[in-house]
Amino acid sequence: MDPQQLRTLVFEKTGIKVDVDDPIFALVALNEAVLAEAVERHIARIDAASQELMQQLRQAGGQPHAVAHEHERHPGFTPAPAAGPVKPIATQAPLLVPRELRLLGAAALVALLSASLVLAGQALFGKPAELTPQQRAALAKAEKLDQILPTLPPATRAAVETALRQP
């Protein structure tokens, strides 16, 4: 906002002339004015609603009239027409309404489809790679060594096992 417009707005709302070089003060003053105005509006609404409730209570036979013309105390108050008998208010909502059930079912279906898609992808692409010829030859050599090693004399077997353990 333009500083001059802010200064004018603060003066209109609060009656305080602020220096254009002090925008923080202007902003604080404007916030206070807007807050005070909003509080006054809310208090007026709450007061009008409470007066309306008191009138409905009296019409239902709950309390005698405190003042003959209660609306004269508050010039902005206009009594609402009688709403008839008071209806009970629901204090508990149902656990799941039909719309929520549909949303829950759709979410469960999407979750199941996603899980099945992931599992199908794993089954399709998760197969181990084929062994290279060098790997197959090394495995065959290791199997032969495992078969021959127990048949060697103990001293030779110990020397071979020691040699195999070294990197």
Explain what this protein looks like in three dimensions.
It is a single chain. This protein has 167 residues and is an all-alpha fold. Among the domains are: 3-72; 133-165, no CATH class. Helices cover 63% and strands 0% of the residues. It is built from five helices and no strands. Helix 1 crosses helix 2. The longest helix is centred in the first third of the chain and has 37 residues, at 23-59. The mean pLDDT is 81.
Bin the strand percentage.
Answer: under 5%
Mean pLDDT: 81
Low-pLDDT residue intervals, each spanning 5 or more residues: none
Radius of gyration: 43 Å
**What is the rounded distance between the termini?**
76 Å
Helix/strand class: mainly alpha
What percent of the residues sit in helical stretches (DSSP H or I)?
55-70%
Q: What best-fitting shape do the alpha-carbon axes yield?
A: elongated
Number of beta-strand segments:
0
